[in-house]
Amino acid sequence: MSNRVWPVDAVSGAPEYSGRALRQAQMAPLLPGATTTRPLGTRSGVRPGTSPTTVTATTTTWTCRPHAGILDVLPAAEAGPYGYAIDADATGSMTPPNATNPRRDILFVQLTDPAESTGGTVPGVVLDYAAGSPAASPTAPAAPARSLVLAEINVPAVGGGNPAVTWVAPVLQSGIWPVRNVTERAALASAIGASTLNPLYVHRADADDIGRLEVTENGTAWRTVFSEVGRGYASDGSGGGALTTSWATSSAPAAIELPPGRYIVHASIGLTLSTSANVGVEAHLFDSTGSPFGSAQGTSENRWANGVAGVASTTLEFTRLITVPSGGRTVQIRRRTSATGGTQSSSIEHLVAQRVG
Fold it and tell me: Is 67 a residue whose pLDDT tops 70?
């Protein structure tokens, strides 16, 4: 067992640094992903922003473009993670397509470190390729020992055209980037890019509390990130009964228990109406004490639906920002009609709550 510190000057020959010592003291503390079984380990993968087109292939040649990543692939938990980099295009030969069936091949990075008993004589990494077995529904070969698979190469049978490359390398954890405004956000997205595999998250200082955390998957379209904290669903089935002019709940209302905080709640009611005359239906969010959430009922909550005899169905939907006071509340939907006489034969209710503060 050794205790490591880095960086310090050696005094009287101590400390001495080995590759393992530097990985433990220099690499491991800077990377997330420690577990009980691998306390000095991390997740093997490539840098955030690495293009999913890093690997390409034709029927004769595979190509891997420059990129960098982390390898935590040795059995010893104390071995620590290795950084690697490919700094120039690398190419190799593809196994020819099969005459009858497609095949799924892999391209991988493999580590050799004789000091860690991996075999070999020279430490390093190599890009290598392995062909799968042709089959009507082919599967990729298993990853070799001490390797990170970068891509699967789907090779059609003879005459089927060029292979299709599927980028499968895990992406290392990326952080949330602080920006002052949309101008800085656009500049950041332009500089580092974004994709489905490499989403870009920002914390925008000029937005309100609800919209500060944003994400893009293409560098131009942004959406606000919320955390869902609850869902509710209810169905009255048949025999829903009268829709009255008083705010009323269904016999088994959709409801969500929410602790104190601010939430965006999306509500919907699907009604099957059986009325003899037109009737206006509106809905509102209430708590279990009968207190309304949001703006005063009967104003901006109105979602009118005209029902006539034999009408199939209608859906009322609305989204509200609510504040749940100390002690928490049960949130539910209530509804009423503009006149007496409206009835329903069934109803379905949905609630989804997302915490924003």
Answer: yes
| pLDDT score for 245 | 77
Same domain flag for 150 and 240: no
Same domain? 144 vs 76: yes
In terms of C-beta density within 10 A (0-12 exposed, 13-18 middle, 19 or more buried), how is residue 249 classed? middle
Does residue 200 sit within a domain? yes
Report DSSP state, residue 350: E
Which pLDDT does position 187 carry in this prediction? Answer: 87
Same domain, 163 and 253: no
Question: Token digits for 146?
Answer: 């001490």
Say yes or no to pLDDT of 297 above 60: no
User: Which of 142-146, 220-224, 342-346 is predicted with the least confidence, judged by mean pLDDT?
Assistant: 342-346
User: CA end-to-end span of the chain, whole Å?
Assistant: 46
Same domain for 88 and 181, yes or no, is no
Domain containing residue 345:
228-355
Sequence-ordered list of residues with C-beta below 8 angstroms from that of 343, at least 6 positions apart, any chain: 240, 241, 242, 243, 273, 274, 275
3, part of any domain: no
Are 343 and 272 in a shared domain? Answer: yes
Is residue 180 packed enough to be buried (19+ CB in 10 Å), middle (13-18) or exposed (0-12)? exposed
β-pair type (176-179, 164-167): unpaired
In a domain, 66, yes or no: yes
d(CA 309, CA 17): 85
Regarding whether 336 and 279 lie in a shared domain, the answer is: yes
Answer yes or no: is 6 within a domain: no
List the CATH number of the domain containing 234: 2.60.120.760
> What digits encode the pLDDT tens for the residues 223-267?
887 766 778 887 765 545 667 777 777 777 888 888 888 888 888
3-state secondary structure 136-195: CCCCCCCCCCCEEEEEEEEECCCCCCCCEEEECCCECCCCEEEECCHHHHHHHHHHHCCC
Q: What is the pLDDT of residue 62?
A: 98
pLDDT band at 298 (very low <50, low <70, confident <90, very high): very low
